[in-house]
Specification:
It is a single chain. The protein is an alpha/beta fold. The protein is built from ten helices and eight strands. The chain has an eight-stranded parallel beta barrel, surrounded by eight helices. The radius of gyration is 16 Å and the shape is globular.
Length: 244
């Protein structure tokens, strides 16, 4: 399975929905159950990862459990080189480009490169840009978040990532954010780049999902919302808004 080609091909037809599951946030059987529900609701890929609490043990276990109930691509959304799972189909090989620490810009990526090669994981390069409020990922990653009204700053970072050869750009407001990335920022970034744009953080309603889609996002990520949503119809409505 060439995950990157598969996703880009689907992106030419519609906006995609990615489900992000944190292996540290719920029991293993619940992680698999959430993945199964997300697949039934129409998600296009499962991402596994979290800013804290991810270990080799819970990552491997989550990946294996999800693979048993899901034939969609399973992509590792890494929190560092300390845990990389060969049970995933691919890894978002991402640089947090507005981190103030070189560890998150390139250091962890260097530590994980030979491991990724040895495991046979498909690396998908990504420019990861933290937008206010940034939440835990911004704090852990020592990011200097892009201001919500700083469209030029977001555009500059995104275009620099494309010029550096990155496959995808990801605008991240942070897991559990009270405000998603502003549609005006999504639109401005999408108009300046020619590679796919992923948007996540704080999207928990059909209205927010629709706004991100209409602004130009090629893929929309929901994590906290999916993990906490117990209503299948509500889950389907959010994913439907991503795709319509």
């Amino acid at each position: 399975m060439n995950v990157k080609k598969r996703l880009i091909r689907k992106m030419t037809k519609e906006t995609l929905h990615f489900t992000l599951l944190d292996p540290d946030k719920q029991p293993l059987n619940e992680t698999a159950n959430i993945a199964k529900r997300a697949v039934a609701a129409g998600t296009d890929a499962i991402m596994i990862g979290g800013s804290t609490g991810v270990t080799q043990k819970n990552l491997d276990a989550a990946a294996q459990a999800i693979k048993k109930v899901c034939k969609l691509p399973v992509i590792y959304f890494p929190s560092g080189a300390h845990a990389i799972s060969g049970y995933c189909d691919a890894i978002f090989y991402m640089s947090m480009v507005n981190s103030t620490s070189l560890d998150w810009v390139i250091g962890e990526q260097v530590k994980g490169s030979l491991i990724t090669k040895e495991l046979g994981l498909e690396p998908i390069s990504m420019g990861y840009i933290i937008v206010e409020p940034g939440m835990t990922v911004g704090r852990v990653g020592q990011a200097k978040p892009i201001g919500r009204d700083d469209l030029k700053g977001a555009m500059s970072y995104a275009l620099a990532c494309e010029y550096l050869g990155m496959d995808f750009i990801y605008l991240e407001a942070g897991s559990g954010a009270d405000r998603p990335v502003p549609p005006a920022m999504i639109k401005a970034v999408k108009e300046i780049i020619s590679v796919p744009l992923i948007v996540g953080g704080g999207i928990r309603t059909p209205e927010a999902a629709e706004a991100a889609r209409l602004a130009g996002a090629n893929a929309i990520v929901t994590g906290t919302f999916v993990e906490r949503c117990s209503d299948d119809s509500e889950l389907k409505n959010v994913i439907k808004a991503v795709k319509e």
